[in-house]
Write a structure and sequence with these properties.
four-stranded mixed sheet; alpha/beta; 5 helices; globular
Length: 172
Amino acid sequence: MRRHVSLRYIRALFFLTLTAVACKPPGRDDSPIGTASASPSVDSAFSAVPDSAWIDVRGLTLIGFYPIRTNEELERDEDLATVLDDFSYYLGTAMDSLTAAGVTVHMHGGDTTWVRTDSSRWRWIRTPDSADVGYVFFDEHRRTAVLYGVRTTDELIESAKEFRATGAVAPR
């Protein structure tokens, strides 16, 4: 019996690993930023995105984005490693307060983020000449606000309040 349970565990772990590898974010494309499929034909870029890659927006949503790097790359680039540590720390410390305020929080690696509401879908692509890390706010009305760079816990919470009230975030 014990061997059967551990075999199930190994199979589940193997399946999750394969799913994670198969569902890595798609590569960068040259589509306009924030576009959505408006034509009746199927947008092959959207249809090729696995369901697990989409971020569902149902209310105020904050997505912290960051570059995907290997440990070896981070060892060679200590500045980026420090930025990613700070980014993770501040977003992690803000998460409980943001969630309590009704904000859905995601962390997303890569330059392209696939977003959908009940009525539309689109992709958000980090501007190539921008900071590698940052935060993007979305709501169900497709309003979007982007903050590039690392923000403190208080800045993230205040920005979420401002976006909820106005649909925008003033540059800081």
